[in-house]
Specification:
The chain has 196 residues and is mainly alpha-helical. It has one domain. The protein is globular and about 65 Å long. The termini are far apart.
């Protein structure tokens, strides 16, 4: 008997053929999203000027880095992999014996564990921080579309269950919240320096 999470995964995962496999692999990567990052950075420059844009860039990189680092705790990877050694890491769908024969798995070139999704965490931290900071509807909508596409690509590639992605989004939003607070404090410091 499959869990609710596993049933959703199996309903969303399908074999789209080689072309869809390649498209999903590209959408799951970072390179294809560089124009979006550049567009958001350009909007930050238009909104804040160069000093505050550098602060925004640093806070965004820190949010994404922290989100990724936190996810490693649950997958037992990265710098904090031993922080919670007793945590029962969850296998990716592609490595779960009951699921893998029912799922479409384009490639097995991934780590064993999928909880928590670092892809979902890093993208959601970028989206949350950008939306909260820039307060532009188009930034929010493009960010949400980007997040949904990346999350779905991870299900298609049999890398994550929906729950892994949801937890990743929570992790990313948490990291982004801390960095948003830091960014607001940094803006006040820049404003004080510019007034002198």
């Amino acid at each position: 008997m499959f869990s609710f999470d596993e049933r959703i995964f199996l309903a969303l995962n399908f074999n789209g053929g080689e072309i869809v496999d390649k498209i999903m692999s590209v959408l799951s990567g970072a390179v294809v999203w560089i124009p979006i990052y550049a567009l958001v950075l350009w909007q930050a420059y238009k909104t804040f000027g160069w000093r505050k844009t550098i602060a925004f860039l640093i806070c965004t990189a820190l949010a994404m880095g922290l989100a990724d680092l936190f996810c490693g705790i649950f997958k037992h990877t990265g710098l904090l992999k031993d922080l919670w050694a007793s945590f029962p890491a969850r296998l990716r769908p592609m490595f779960t014996p009951e699921i893998r024969d029912l799922a479409h798995v384009p490639s097995f070139r991934h780590g064993l564990y999928g909880t928590v999704s670092a892809h979902a965490a890093t993208i959601s931290s970028f989206v949350f921080l950008s939306s909260a900071t820039l307060k532009k509807k188009w930034v929010t909508w493009i960010g949400i579309a980007m997040l949904l596409i990346v999350c779905y690509s991870r299900i298609y590639l049999a890398c994550h269950y929906p729950k892994d992605l949801f937890l990743g989004i929570l992790m990313g939003c948490t990291a982004a919240t801390f960095m948003y607070i830091l960014f607001r404090m940094w803006l006040k410091t820049i404003d004080r320096c510019e007034k002198k």
